[in-house]
Amino acid sequence: MITLYGFGAGFGLPEISPFVTKTEVQLKMAGLPYRKERAMPPASPKGQLPFIDDGGEAVADSTFIRAHIERRYGFDFDAGLSLSERAQAWAFERMIEHHVYWALVGARWVDPVNFAKGPSHFFDGAPEHNREKLREDAQFRVAENYLLSGLGRHAPDDDVDLAVRSLFALSVQLGDKAYLMGNKPCGVDATAFGALAGILTPFFESGLRQRAEGFANLTAYVDRMMDDYYPEFAWTPLRQAA
């Protein structure tokens, strides 16, 4: 059986990390049995989560895990899509992971209130004498990466404005369809769901979340994906939470 290593539930979500969520949803899409274990990034071959152990073979990074599933198990996440649609799905996935994701990081890690409420607790189990330093160092490293991503170089309102342009593109692509590429979920839906749920969880308050809530089809999409892939999770539909 495949073992998926992730952070686990938190922040009002069944999984804290949008990348672990992506892989977990894709395992569900493929109908593959798996078990899930908590881990921290240093345990991974690439120093990041998720990673899987599949019969003794460790595979790290959500995109490479997807490729492994497709190659080993012959599952096509984009079955039914034309070559052009596959290219569009890949482009949207890159936009989500290299733009929308970093907006989520800014809202969680750079905002001091949200950091104190959420990611700072990753270090609660550290020795008391250096706990605060570990928190400060981690927040500094993430803020530095946020700067390098490009979004962190802008004023807070400006970085949200840029992120919302990507959310608008996702909203237009979704339209009145059930899923991003049609009436059947495909690989990019796992990616989009992980990022959008991470932004829209009521656990955090942010300007990004407020703006994202303005896209009614995206909030309905997150609710639908949650029902599809985490029906057992105690999730209050966003339309009710709003």
Q: What is the strand tally?
A: 4
> Into which percent range does the helicity of residues fall?
55-70%
Mean pLDDT: 94
Give the percentage of residues in beta strands. Answer: 5-15%
H/E series, N to C?
A: EHEEEHHHHHHHHH
Give the number of helices.
Answer: 10
Computed CA radius of gyration, to the nearest angstrom: 18 Å
For the terminal residues, how far apart are their CA atoms? 40 Å
Derived from helix and strand composition plus strand pairing, the structural class reads alpha+beta
Spatial strand arrangement across the major sheet: 2-1-3-4
The parts where pLDDT drops under 50 for at least 5 residues are: none
Major beta-sheet overview: 4 strands, mixed
Query: What overall form do the CA principal axes indicate?
Result: globular
Protein name: Glutathione S-transferase family protein
Domain Thioredoxin-like fold: 18-114
Domain Metaxin glutathione S-transferase: 165-225
InterPro entries: FAX/IsoI-like, Glutathione-S-Trfase_C_sf, Glutathione_S-Trfase, Metaxin_GST, Mito_Protein_Transport_Metaxin, Thioredoxin-like_fold, Thioredoxin-like_sf
